[in-house]
Amino acid sequence: MPVREISSTNISPAITTASADTNYSRPLAIVTTLFFMWGFLTCLNDILVPHLRSIFDLSYARVMLIQLSFFSAYFLFSVPWSRIVNWIGYQRTMVAGLLTMAAGAFLFIPAAVAVSFPLFLTALMVLATGITGLQVAANPYVVVLGKPATASSRLDLTQAFNSLGTTVAPKIGGLLILSAAPLAIEQLRQLSPQASAAYRASQAASVKLPYAVIAVALLVLAIMIGVSKLPKIERAAPRAGASVPDSIWSHPNLLFGALGIFAYVGAEVSIGSFLVNYFGLPAIAGMSAKTAAGYVSFYWGGAMIGRFLGAPVLRRVKAGNVLALCAIAAVVLVTTSMMTGGHTAMWTMLAIGFFNSIMFPTIFSLGVAELGPLTGTGSGLLNMAIVGGAVLPVIQGAIADHFGLHHAFVLPVICYLYILFYALSGSRPNSQRYERA
């Protein structure tokens, strides 16, 4: 997830050297596999939401504990992981993150055997803890692994491969996890206790093979990253003995940016989490869960296409203007979907993925602008703000329980309006604020 261009006058010599005209294509390709992997695993949650809701007879608000458990890891573990990066370096932190992810994936097997919702939540949190480690290490690593002038564009491009993972995950997850058509909640409640237990066990078992394969793949990837000869790059830090006469709290663009990340991730996850259930509504498409899961790929596929297109656009067009345009488009599309029905409501909601594409990299880049040696600390704060993906889906679930799912998307509208404010005003760095003062 992108960080801004880093000025060589504000950072240590190690980063200045790493940013020189050196070909880093091979290490970037290796690290890009991590972006794909965590995108794939994050998006599988959109399949787990309707699947576990059916198994455990959960309300919309309670099933969103899936996203709460997953994304709260960013808030809880971003700072500890940043300290681990400082202790053992970027490459070893990536390996540690992958091993933690593998442990979380293996935990899905006992969770399925025990048919335990709390154990599923525990597995998700362990998995997300590992992903947090990858985020904390891989994002700044990609930023400094090349020319500072192309940092945002480079990280936007790696994020495109993250979106490739999110695009294929719903299709694969739908085929493997939702292979057996789930019973409706009303049908489930009519079963005898013995039949209900047998049904829940058979449905829960469908996650064992996919997550076992994922766990093995993560172990293999950890070995590959561990034995690869990646360039050693120091984190952005002041020179030895130098003091930093600055504070992250004196940079409004960072503080407003943290709220922007909170709003963006919350909106993106809220929409993605409810798409399968949304498309199942008779007023929208009346689809089965398995069919709807296939359409979710269009949502994440739009983000992938948008990021591939956004990389060159962000080299030529002012980032704030691109962000504002995308925020306006998202507001219009969500509002249109809420006010209509049928395929119009379905495709306008799916189209939001395209305009989501550049939001995270752009907000992140604008948020850490002009932080200099505080860039690492600022990046940690922005990573913690990903907790919006834990909080806002639960709130949207509560709205859906009380007012209906069709009207619950008012929450993402509010989020995109805040992002519009950030693009037009909140993202201005101190140099521009003082200039206008």
List the helices and strands and how they pair.
Blueprint: H1 13-18, H2 25-43, H3 45-56, H4 60-63, H5 65-88, H6 90-114, H7 117-144, H8 151-177, H9 185-189, H10 193-204, H11 208-227, H12 252-279, H13 289-316, H14 319-339, H15 342-356, H16 359-367, H17 375-384, H18 388-403, H19 410-426, H20 430-436
Helix pairs in contact: 2-7, 2-8, 3-8, 3-10, 3-12, 5-6, 5-7, 5-17, 5-18, 6-7, 6-11, 7-8, 7-17, 8-13, 12-13, 12-15, 12-16, 12-17, 12-18, 12-19, 13-15, 14-15, 14-16, 14-19
What does this molecule look like?
By secondary structure, this protein is mostly helical. It has one domain: MFS general substrate transporter like domains (Growth Hormone, Chain: A, Up-down Bundle). Helix 6 runs antiparallel to helix 7, helix 8 packs antiparallel against helix 13 and helix 14 packs across helix 16.
> Any idea what the CATH superfamily is called?
MFS general substrate transporter like domains
Strand content: under 5%
- When the domains are counted, the total is 1
Mean pLDDT: 83
CATH architecture descriptor name:
Up-down Bundle
Low-confidence stretches: 1-21, 235-242
In total, how many beta strands?
Answer: 0
Query: Level of helix content?
Result: over 70%
The biggest sheet, with number of strands, parallel, antiparallel or mixed sense and barrel status, is: none
Quaternary organisation: single chain
What is the distance, rounded to the nearest whole angstrom, between the alpha carbons of the first and last residues?
A: 32 Å
